[in-house]
Amino acid sequence: MTTTATLATRTDAEHLADPNWWRQASVYQIYPRSFADSNGDGIGDINGILAKVPYLKALGIDAVWLSPFYPSALADGGYDVDDYRNVDPRLGTLEDFDAMASALHAAGIKLIVDIVPNHSSNRHEWFQEALAAPKGSPARERYIFRDGLGDQGELPPSDWESVFGGPAWERITEPDGTPGQWYMHIFAKEQPDLNWDNPEVREDFLKTLRFWSDRGVDGFRIDVAHALTKNLEESLPTTADLEAEGEALYLEGRHPYWDRNEVHEIYAEWRKLFNEYNPPRTAVAEAWVHADRRARYASPEGLGQAFNFDLLQADFDAGQFRKTITKNLAEAEASGASSTWVFSNHDVVRHATRYGLPAAGSSAEGDIMAGQAGKQWLLAGGRREEVDAELGLRRARAASLLMFALPGSAYLYQGEELGLQEVGSEIPDSERQDPSFFRNKGVEIGRDGCRVPLPWTAGGSSFGFGPAGSHLPQPAWFADSSVEVQEAQEDSTLSLYRRALALRSQLQADETLEWLETGRSDVLAFRRPNGWTSVTNFGTEPFELPAGDVLVSSSPLEGAFLPGATTAWLQ
Questions:
Q1: CA–CA distance, 554 with 509 (Å, rounded to integer)
Q2: 209 FRET partner, CA 20 to 30 A, in 169, 317, 385, 431?
Q3: In Å, how far are 54, 96, 229, 282 from 410, measured between CA atoms?
């Protein structure tokens, strides 16, 4: 190598004031109920996060993304929200939230929170008003209520199914005790869909966004961003009608409730609100849409960024990775956004497990359990001995290091910095919590396996998660993966993440890369504009590295060779 990478150190104050901080940020997702428990009730809480701010600072992240922490019955892991402008009392108070936000900012870490606008919980005061009000009342107009089909309205308004299985409609009992109307719920029945044609709904969410922005929140992750607006004509199409129209229905934005064109009117209004702040508040859409339509969510006039899950859904394959990276960087450049990269989150099988399964394949777009092999493993009972854990972790470390080298935002999920495997059969059916398991028992095992509380120490009743037990059972093998153990190991996954994230923040460059030819179809190499290079060997044969100093590697190097499933950065 003849060029030398530029190492630059940015102060916390510069990071906090930068309006473009999000474009190449390292964002760490915290699932609050499973991160750290401060009071021993078995549930992670806000003060638990506060106590771990030094850990987050040492990890080297730019921002924390907080999954829902609002009051909730946990019918869907907190994504059933009772009150959008409060904290679940089991997790803390608004004062605790303010203290956490201040501590994160003092450490130079931005704060992103989850917003769930498609649906409220069925315990939300609005929905309770709707149940107590008569048909056609303003209270019911905040949600999607319809008369049923059949002579007595005994059939749901359509044959649509919810994402979690079963009908997408639930019948209510009217205030006079008679069987009544039906309400729509794309997800669980405890999550009634809001009516975004109603100005009151739109105004209330603007109030919510301003509430959290005024408390110092720096950005928002928008849950199910593609489902807010709906076209519910008098005669609803059947599932067969929708299937007959095929892909055109999605590409043209004409599906009754997925990715309709008018949803962007809402986000244009949100963007105006975000831009009132200095620096502007950021937003990223969770939008499982066709790649050709993703840019609409990521436009500067809209939310600004949208998750792409393409790498998450790809096999561990050099050709698939290169094609996916090239396509997404081109899309980001065309939209004016920056790309997003992610391998694990609260909805999918951890990538250290996916990559250790035989014949890992990709899932259909929008499948909530990414990776067909991962899904099949879970359905088969998810026994740990079926996973080549060593191979899976080696590939996961290599993939993560490659991701950190890419231009754009890198999203991490809590525990991946420890190389955690998915927890499978160690969770008894009686202790599972995910509604998809109970609604589709025998078809969907659910997402509890990636939501098991983190191991902080090698011992204790919950491996340091809290002073007592944990709300989901932790396997005995968590001890060897704990923070306590890995902090003492120079070659641990935690140590690798810390070194890589520190370098990532110092090696920032323009949001471009130059592919380098390696002479091998199973080896990817690219150079960033300030002269440093990432090389990944997806194959099983060694590869001779170009000349240069190795800044970091995902596994020990053997002389001048890069063993299989390894990424190295060089200058």
A1: 22
A2: 169
A3: 20, 28, 29, 15
Is 480 among the catalytic positions? Answer: no
Closest listed residue to residue 97, CA positions, set 230, 177, 174, 211: 211
Q: Which of 200, 276, 301, 514 is catalytic?
A: 276
The answer on pLDDT for 420 being more than 90 is yes
pLDDT of residue 500: 98
Average pLDDT over residues 445-470: 94
For the record, the structure tokens of 363 come out as 């899932």
| Catalytic site residue from 62, 114, 218, 223 | 223
Q: Which amino acid type is present at position 134?
A: P
Three-state SS letters, 480-527 = HHCHHHHHCCCCCHHHHHHHHHHHHHHCCCCCCCEEECCCCCCEEEEE
Which is it for strands 566-570 and 550-553: parallel, antiparallel or unpaired?
antiparallel
Tokens standing for residue 543: 């590869």
CA distances to 113, 432, 497 from 12, rounded to whole Å, are 20, 41, 20
Question: Do the Cβ atoms of 98 and 215 come closer than 8 Å?
Answer: yes
How many Cβ atoms sit within 10 Å of the Cβ of residue 94?
Answer: 13
Count other C-beta atoms under 10 Å from residue 234's C-beta: 6
Q: What pLDDT does residue 364 have? A: 35
Q: What confidence tens digit (pLDDT) does each residue in 35-75 have?
A: 999 999 999 999 999 999 999 999 999 999 999 999 999 99
Q: In this structure, which amino acid lies at residue 259?
A: D
Q: How many degrees, rounded to 5, is the angle at CA 26 between CA 212 and CA 551?
A: 160
Is 276 designated active site?
A: yes
Q: What are the tens digits of pLDDT across the range 151-194?
A: 999 999 999 999 988 999 999 999 999 999 999 999 999 999 99
Q: What's the confidence (pLDDT) of residue 560?
A: 74
Burial class (CB in 10 A: 0-12, 13-18, 19+), 35: buried
Q: What are phi and psi of 304, to 5 degrees?
A: 100, -30
| pTM (global) more than 0.90 | yes
* Residue 361 identity (one-letter amino acid): G
The secondary structure element, H or E, covering residue 550 is strand 550-553
Cα 328 from Cα 332, distance rounded (Å): 6
Alpha helices in 310-384 (DSSP H): 310-313, 318-335, 351-354, 372-379
Give me the chain's average pLDDT, please: 92
**pLDDT in the model for residue 564:** 87
Cα separation, 303 vs 388, whole angstroms? 40
From residue 407, give the alpha-carbon distance in Å to each of 6, 338, 402, 527: 15, 8, 10, 11
